[in-house]
């Protein structure tokens, strides 16, 4: 049976993290990008991590960090991986992978009217390819989907046995079924689609997990 990996992202309060306990998502993400609505500090992150279910991997989301930013994070908190959600280079990914024992999720942005991103050179240095919508002003957490036909174009660049490809951008309980049915991503990642009025919504989170299981079991 297929098992689509689920990453739930953008937790800011212990109350919201606790809503994930009965669901144990495969991954839980925390935003460390300065100045965004879901941003948390190292101190808050440290407190939130106490409530993360044992089975869920803990991911810090960063955008164009310096090597020192990553080192400071690693010194402050115990995490399983980082998601690089900016324009990080192949060399930067290599440096991070060589220095830290971290799972590295690299985001590749799908922008309207732009060629599909080139992922091949990154493959030795990353663990997951994550595709997300972007426009020229903002990246991540916008609740907007990209043209999923681009998933096929990215997969066509990859050798047959290769890294998992995850999809993000405007996903919710109402569209993940179609995404999995049509494009079979290895994983999905979402922030906005499991929230109501800026707070994580237990019902939406549960329905999302149920919908993924339903489609996986088909
Ligand atoms: O969630 C955020 O606020 C965020 C901020 C900065 C960078 C990444 C962010 N989240 C990631 O964005 C995508 C899509 O989110 P959405 O479901 O469309 O809201 C996902 O990869 C999140 O991990």
From TrEMBL:
One Pfam family recorded for the sequence: PRAI
Pathway note: Amino-acid biosynthesis; L-tryptophan biosynthesis; L-tryptophan from chorismate: step 3/5
Entry's EC annotation: 5.3.1.24
GO molecular function annotation: phosphoribosylanthranilate isomerase activity
Cross-referenced SUPFAM superfamilies: Ribulose-phoshate binding barrel
Swiss-Prot/TrEMBL catalytic activity: N-(5-phospho-beta-D-ribosyl)anthranilate = 1-(2-carboxyphenylamino)-1-deoxy-D-ribulose 5-phosphate
Enzyme class: isomerase
Domain N-(5'phosphoribosyl) anthranilate isomerase (PRAI) intervals: 6-210
Keywords: Amino-acid biosynthesis, Aromatic amino acid biosynthesis, Isomerase, Tryptophan biosynthesis
GO biological process, one term: L-tryptophan biosynthetic process
HAMAP family the record matches: PRAI
Family classification: Belongs to the TrpF family.
Protein name: N-(5'-phosphoribosyl)anthranilate isomerase
